[in-house]
Design a protein that fits this description.
about 150 residues, alpha+beta, 3-stranded mixed sheet, 3 strands, about 60% helix
Length: about 150
């Protein structure tokens, strides 16, 4: 028997996860996503996390967990856990794209925006409206120096 968690995510995160892991994810601890999920699902005391703003999470990404795993470790998923998981995935997704942009600029002279657009295209994220691309570019501009400094340490 399998337990399914339908994690609410934004459209771009669903495309990222689908490209990275397939249409559905089967929990394992052999990659970062499985470790992140299993850590959040372990039996813990009840706490809640309040999101800062309401986001448009209109898509769902299915995560399957074997019943034997759930029985052995216990699972408890609050809305706060969902928010932390979504925030972690978004952070990892953005940092991955930003590092690619810096690498391509340094090694090949490719413009940052071109790399970011190529990454979005690779993950199947279409730019239906340019708001997401603009948000990524603004965020990249704010974080670029910090990422470069971190690399040089």
């Amino acid at each position: 028997m399998i337990i399914t968690i339908n994690l609410p995510v934004s459209k771009h995160l669903k495309e990222f996860l689908t490209t990275k892991f397939g249409k559905e994810y089967h929990l394992g601890t052999d990659n970062w996503f499985g470790v992140l999920i299993s850590t959040l699902l372990e039996r813990k005391s009840c706490w809640d996390f309040k999101p800062k703003k309401e986001e448009q999470n209109t898509e769902f990404y299915s995560i399957h967990i074997k019943l034997s795993y759930a029985n052995k470790h216990g699972i408890f998923l609050t809305k706060g856990h969902e928010e932390l998981l979504r925030k972690s995935i978004e952070s990892l997704f953005r940092e991955n794209i930003y590092e690619q942009a810096l690498l391509n600029k340094e090694c090949y002279g490719i413009d940052y925006k071109t790399t970011i657009l190529n990454c979005l295209e690779y993950y199947g994220i279409t730019d239906d409206n340019s708001n997401y691309l603009q948000a990524l570019m603004r965020d990249f501009s704010r974080k670029k120096d910090r990422i470069e400094t971190r690399r040089g340490e």
